[in-house]
Amino acid sequence: MEERRNLAPGAVSGASVPPGPPAGGPPASDVIGSALHQILQLSRAFERQVGQALEVNTTDLTAMEHLIQEGALTPGELSRRLDISTAATTLVIDRLVALGHAQRHPHASDRRKVVVVPAQESVTRAFQQLHPVIGGVAALTQELSDDERHVVEAFLERVIGVYRSSLDSQSSSFHS
Asked: Which residue ranges have biased composition labelled Low complexity (predicted)?
């Protein structure tokens, strides 16, 4: 006897259905999940806006972030942080230097090496772009009571842990 399946209208029997949210979308109580999703989307849009203002692509902007946060880096160090080849990193550095966002300098202790440093004017421009969001979030955190701050910090640390755990497990499955 033929097995009968309940199929959605227009569905093809035996077709693979990609996983998705439960029917009807997320539960109404998932305001936090929805807010986190909105923050992620807005963060991506904001990064694109900053990149456009600085006239760089996403990879170049990420390289600038590393240089601004960590200071002088060798091309090899930058390559590892960007998780791209050294050849691709050379192209990134060339673009940043050509746009005036970075400079190459001799390494302080190894004359064979160079380091890439962010140009101060570009650091200033980047912070001008970032300031409204950084300042706005800082102002919001100042409005929190100590108890509220502890709850938010604990929750965000757990969310970060979920992301790190997922990245670690996916990374290990790629290398298995």
From this structure: 8-17
